[in-house]
Design the sequence.
């Protein structure tokens, strides 16, 4: 029982309502999308990073040894690998809070109920909005979260079109300004003007370390 792993590391969680907490990351190899603004293209299949097979047992032990109470499985796209739900369940069995960050194109219902899905719904600037599985918006569990990366008003309008399908009192919705493209203050102004119950989601790791730094 193994997974193709791009990298593992411990850092500060940079996004979602869990931002700011120490977190053990497992970044899996492979992605079915090619977003124009992707900041982890090195995790693509056939990319410059040599991925390695790691057993679920090995990954669970490595995460346990970090002492972090928060763990995230990310990618690439982690739900492309059949063993991801098992890894999430095993990590949750340690008593950890387990996040699975997924790109919005894969059915999140395969995840164990103990895991928290962070569903990244792509907008027009990504070039991949048409490949989203919008059924995920009705599959969200109580603790799951949604993220929209906003690069311009078109992305913002796309988010507004989907908000009626979400219960923002039940599921946290994160609006993240595209780094280097949209000023956080501008997105904050839009959210406040429209009186939205949406969380401004800054990528903390890109403010703590250089934006292109890996392993953070």
Sequence:
């Amino acid at each position: 029982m193994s997974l193709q792993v791009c990298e593992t590391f411990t850092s500060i969680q940079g996004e979602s309502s869990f931002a700011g907490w120490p977190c053990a990351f497992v970044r899996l190899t492979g992605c079915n999308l090619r977003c124009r603004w992707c900041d982890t293209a090195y995790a693509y299949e056939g990319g410059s990073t040599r991925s390695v097979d790691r057993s679920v047992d090995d990954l669970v032990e490595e995460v346990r040894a970090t002492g972090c109470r928060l763990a995230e499985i990310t990618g690439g796209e982690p739900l492309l690998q059949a063993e991801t739900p098992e890894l999430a369940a095993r990590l949750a069995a340690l008593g950890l809070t387990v996040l699975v960050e997924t790109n919005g194109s894969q059915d999140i219902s395969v995840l164990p109920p103990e895991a928290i899905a962070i569903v990244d719904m792509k907008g027009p600037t990504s070039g991949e909005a048409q490949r989203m599985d919008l059924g995920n918006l009705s599959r969200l569990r109580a603790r799951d979260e949604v993220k929209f990366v906003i690069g311009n008003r078109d992305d913002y309008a796309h988010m507004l079109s989907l908000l009626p399908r979400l219960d923002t009192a039940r599921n946290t919705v994160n609006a993240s300004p595209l780094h280097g493209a949209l000023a956080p203050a501008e997105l904050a102004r839009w959210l406040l003007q429209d009186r939205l119950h949406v969380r401004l989601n800054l990528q903390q790791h890109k403010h703590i370390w250089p934006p292109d730094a890996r392993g953070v």
Q: What stands out?
A: The two ends are 27 Å apart (CA to CA). The first strand starts at residue 2 and ends at 12. The first helix runs from residue 56 to 66.
